[in-house]
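can u do me a favor
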């Protein structure tokens, strides 16, 4: 196996790739299964504005692939190659929200991590939460006051707020009813049409909108 690498564009001034070119490419990517064994090599291109859905066991290889793409884990082998931008928005199955913060504060974290002045106002944060169906009365509540489905939508909002080039969504509607799941699917679909690529895992309500449906990895 070749040494694992992550290839990122040279910087924020890199020339934007043309529409339809890969926003993300996995080349012979090998990740760890939950039992520690290596997965089969994965080769996959995700075009700008495109959507690909990985299918597999919950918390299995699809989850591991998303964590590698997001930079949380290191691959066993292979390459992760980004297009013109390497910023990634991630939703995990565990949500990974901070219980000491409100819903809106959790969504604002990626902006604040960029720079203290990146958050101009709460209007965009609140608008995104509203678009995803989080009740207005819950926007400034702590996580313990939110349902599991509301927390999942907060996690999706946090992934979307920086308008990332690549969205890594690990079964982002598993705790939602069909109507709420469709709302989230519409928002995510609009986000990736705006220039973002979507790499989803598990069952996602917008499967029929994906460019490649049901890529099984294991």
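np, heres the sequence
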């Amino acid at each position: 196996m070749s040494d694992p690498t992550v290839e990122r564009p040279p910087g924020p001034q890199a020339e934007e790739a043309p529409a339809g070119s890969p926003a993300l490419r996995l080349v012979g990517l090998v990740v760890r299964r939950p039992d520690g064994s290596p997965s089969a090599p994965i080769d996959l291109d995700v075009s700008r504005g495109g959507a690909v859905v990985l299918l597999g066991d919950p918390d299995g290889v699809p989850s591991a692939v998303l964590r590698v793409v997001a930079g949380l884990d290191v691959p066993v082998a292979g390459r992760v190659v980004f297009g013109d931008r390497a910023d990634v928005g991630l939703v995990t199955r565990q949500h990974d929200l901070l219980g000491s913060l409100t819903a809106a504060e959790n969504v604002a974290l990626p902006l604040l991590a960029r720079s203290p002045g990146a958050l101009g106002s709460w209007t965009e944060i609140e608008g995104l939460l509203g678009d995803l169906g989080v009740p207005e009365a819950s926007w400034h509540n702590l996580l313990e006051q939110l349902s599991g489905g509301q927390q999942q939508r907060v996690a999706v909002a946090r992934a979307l707020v920086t308008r990332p080039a690549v969205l890594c969504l690990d079964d982002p509607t598993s705790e939602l009813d069909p109507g709420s799941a469709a709302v989230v699917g519409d928002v995510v679909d609009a986000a990736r049409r705006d220039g973002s690529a979507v790499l989803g895992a598990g069952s996602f309500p917008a499967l029929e909108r994906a460019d490649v449906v049901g890529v099984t990895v294991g």
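DSSP finds five helices and nine strands in the chain. hope that helps!!
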